[in-house]
Specification:
Elements lengths: L2 H40 L24 H25 L1
């Protein structure tokens, strides 16, 4: 066999392989979609009565009532980090 025969054989093998993979993945998507529809139709769980599936909308984010304490803790953590970083740089 000459090199052009090898190239044509490789190209045809590549096309067959890619074709089979494409067909398999397409079939997998179709079967999964069909299975999902069947399960939704015959095995649907009833929604609890009086309970809404909606997420409540709030106008303000839920925060702690004492913001001053939170700011103090964050500031102390930042100061501690900067102090440790400065000490580590002095050692080197």
């Amino acid at each position: 066999m000459n090199p052009s025969d090898f190239i044509s054989e490789g190209f045809s093998l590549m096309l067959y392989g890619m074709g089979f993979v494409f067909l398999f993945l397409t079939l997998l998507v179709l079967v999964t979609s069909l299975m999902s529809k069947i399960i939704d139709r015959y095995f649907r769980e009833p929604a609890p009565s009086g309970v809404s599936n909606r997420i409540p909308v709030t106008s303000q984010p839920v925060l702690s009532s004492d913001q001053g304490e939170l700011v103090a803790v964050i500031s102390a953590a930042i100061q501690m980090h900067r102090t440790k970083k400065a000490q580590a740089e002095k050692r080197q």
